[in-house]
């Protein structure tokens, strides 16, 4: 992807990676314990800004076996771009996270957690252990340097947990799990954004109230929980996504009414 790519082009590149055939958390979780390695990550409206700031972000996403839309805004916009329904799937206790925990229990698998500031992964691990999961390793998402990072990866490879869940924020978590697989890990490696923090604070795997999940109002819940940080994200950091989504929607409307220029002419045979 070119440094001069427009926001709309970046959004389209992300949308093209989202699999319309996978619509449930259980489909993602079913990859745990199977042939590996398996890399899974999740994009949200912030991903457009990440792709603009980090030229390796789109190529990095292409390394993943599964990339999903975390958030109803991206899912709806990608559905319009792809002209096929794209499901909203996120790594949390009401979606893919819960399905993965259930899958790990079902197969007696083990899990390692890497992410958050010091103590967060351990606290999240304690919550999951109390629910019956076999958490065999925890580490913060910060390293003293490349050697420390490489040492953590080697510890994970030697321990060989069934799944490694990384919550460092994009693009650091994506870089970490890709590097982990490149170093030799053969299991299921997924990113989870800020879920470990949410898990450690909530004290339970499912941290969103059911009505919030049902009505797709997670953003409201997060704003109420973290008003300063989340309002800044939704207003400023999501701006490139808003521009891209609006541009894509307008272009889609023009195509639908036959104003798509050369593309429409080729369809009509003119």
TrEMBL record:
One term of GO molecular function: hexosyltransferase activity
Keyword field: Glycosyltransferase, Transferase
Pfam family membership, one: Glyco_tran_WecG
Coiled coil residues, start to end: none
Organism domain of life: Bacteria
InterPro entries xref list: WecG_TagA_CpsF
Protein name (record): Polymer biosynthesis protein, WecB/TagA/CpsF family
